[in-house]
Amino acid sequence: MASHIILPPDDADGNHNQEREGEGEEEEAAQEGLGRHDYGEQHAPPPPPKAALPFSASCVRISRDSYPNLRALSNASSVSLADAAYVKISEGDFGYVLDDVPHFTDYLPDVPTYPNPLQDHPAYSTVKQYFVNEDDTVPQKVVVQKNSRRGVHFRRAGPRQRVYFGTDEVKACIVTCGGLCPGLNTVIRELVCGLSHMYNVNNIFGIQNGYKGFYSSNYLPLTPKSVNDIHKRGGTVLGTSRGGHDTKKIVDNIQDRGINQVYIIGGDGTQKGAYEIFKEIRKRGLKVSVAGVPKTIDNDIAIIDKSFGFDTAVEEAQRAIDSAHVEACSAENGIGLVKLMGRYSGFIAMYATLASRDVDCCLIPESPFYMDGEGGLLQYIERRLKENRHMVIVVAEGAGQDLIAQSIATSAQQDASGNKLLLDIGLWLTHKIKDYFKSKKMEMTIKYIDPTYMIRAIPSNASDNVYCTLLAHSAIHGAMAGYSFTVGMRVTSTRNKVKITDRMWARLLSSTNQPSFLSEKDIDEASEADRLANRPPLPTGAFHRVANSFESSASTSSNGEI
Ligand SMILES: Nc1ncnc2c1ncn2[C@@H]1O[C@H](COP(=O)(O)OP(=O)(O)O)[C@@H](O)[C@H]1O
Ligand SMILES: O=P(O)(O)OC[C@H]1O[C@](O)(COP(=O)(O)O)[C@@H](O)[C@@H]1O
Ligand SMILES: [Mg+2]
């Protein structure tokens, strides 16, 4: 579907991000300050308000200066025929494509609008051009070539001149779902305070323990006072859960309780659920905005440049790596092994490794490796120990799952949301490494540290707190302007992954000096995946054709390709 767009907010100046780190030429240019777009001082005055905006709201990009390594990503081709009805793609000159977000007026043409109360707000009314221009969009790709198409664009996030809710009309609820992530409480706090302080909303409720709380728990009244200090705590004050998504029961409760803004904080699974809720709301013709705030400590949600909590996780991982290094250095042939989170995407492991400089080997799910024989991991460890007498290994939890499955009989298990339960790669590696050196009669010591739950349970750091505020405020502005803009299906059909053919991974390899472990076949496959992922956007006609042939396998194809 095209519906839910994610809108990590742009910064106040309208600067936005570059390509994901490691996008080749673009990334290098960006590092040198080249190719950075700036929307300039300010926009021309916005056109007079219309009764019903043709579109607006929300793509937000963040400045490369603050968040140097990520990019927004969307995938309009990964939509089933059933969902194609919700897609809003329009085209302009020179290959300009607007990948738009749904709006009340798509199905409720006569909803009244009101002047945005922010124009009288003492804090905001003095800000030059505070409201975003209706036509503002943000390109998916920042670096382009002279003759390249203008490509996919998203709505820019931020407050609109007119809103679709009267002052006392808003009844908002907030829910957190899925695994913990630093910053959840900050987002909750900023949603409550932002709604209250910017739009005078007094009816705000927390849904307890994830989606099932919509229909099985009392709603918790939230006020700026009750959430005042929560950003200093880890976890989520609302509670969270996996499983329990019953669309009909959820929307029945939304309807019965007169909720008209639903803020949903969660990862890829949660956003699939948000999309189902949006569709049901639209089917029932309800005036309800669904605003998704993407949460993923693994940074595996495509479309956003970086998820909140990621910086905090990378920073906290340093403490575990430092400990592993101390342990390794203090023993003869000492090995420190640290497991970090990352089911399918090794971003935390990659960034924590690059930041640390003490790591000799980083293993991630995206880059296959092998244990035995020439060029294998065990041989590399032996060489490193002989050279340095110690070594530090960082492994992402999703790495090497195929190797474990080959060596021990396991049955595939899932959590309540249907996510595959992973086997402990850290423990498995520890045994394998010990066995190897025993067979070689070489003394060594290995210390395995698993800080995963400790990392995700801490409060967010300063930079993530600022980011959480931008996300929360953008969600509020988008909802007030009548949009439903969670990431939805596109997020679920494409996953953000480390590109092992990019410069960032090459940087890591040169920093650790580890072998790449890749065969030519692995490299060919990775290059082909990149080629497909970077395919130019399909024009609307082609999109429908794709949607058609894609229906039977909707949302299962990786990268949304067919
Ligand atoms: N395809 C789906 N449709 C509807 N709800 C879903 C879907 N996938 C996951 N969910 C719901 O989203 C919530 C969180 O999903 P989960 O995968 O556990 O975490 P995350 O959102 O962090 O990825 C759960 O309540 C789950 O039931
Ligand atoms: O909390 P659980 O159920 O033990 O799940 C652990 C998983 O949660 C995560 O921290 C986050 O995953 P989600 O974003 O899907 O919630 C993963 O890194 C990890 O594999
Ligand atoms: Mg998930």
Automatic annotation (TrEMBL):
Enzyme class: transferase
GO CC list: cytosol
Region (Disordered): 1-52
Keywords (A to Z) from UniProt: Allosteric enzyme, ATP-binding, Cytoplasm, Glycolysis, Kinase, Magnesium, Metal-binding, Nucleotide-binding, Transferase
Pathway the protein takes part in: Carbohydrate degradation; glycolysis; D-glyceraldehyde 3-phosphate and glycerone phosphate from D-glucose: step 3/4
Cofactor(s) it depends on: Mg(2+)
Binding site for Mg(2+): 268
Transmembrane segments: none
Main location group: cytoplasm
Binding locations of ATP: 179, 242-243, 267-270
GO MF terms held by the record: 6-phosphofructokinase activity; ATP binding; metal ion binding
Reactions listed under catalytic activity: beta-D-fructose 6-phosphate + ATP = beta-D-fructose 1,6-bisphosphate + ADP + H(+)
Location of the protein in the cell: Cytoplasm
Pfam families according to UniProt: PFK
Binding-site list for substrate: 296-298, 341-343, 397, 453-456
PANTHER family: ATP-DEPENDENT 6-PHOSPHOFRUCTOKINASE 1
Subunit structure: Homotetramer.
The family this protein is said to belong to: Belongs to the phosphofructokinase type A (PFKA) family. PPi-dependent PFK group II subfamily. Atypical ATP-dependent clade 'X' sub-subfamily.
Name recorded for this polypeptide: ATP-dependent 6-phosphofructokinase
Species of the source: Dichanthelium oligosanthes
Gene this chain is encoded by: PFK
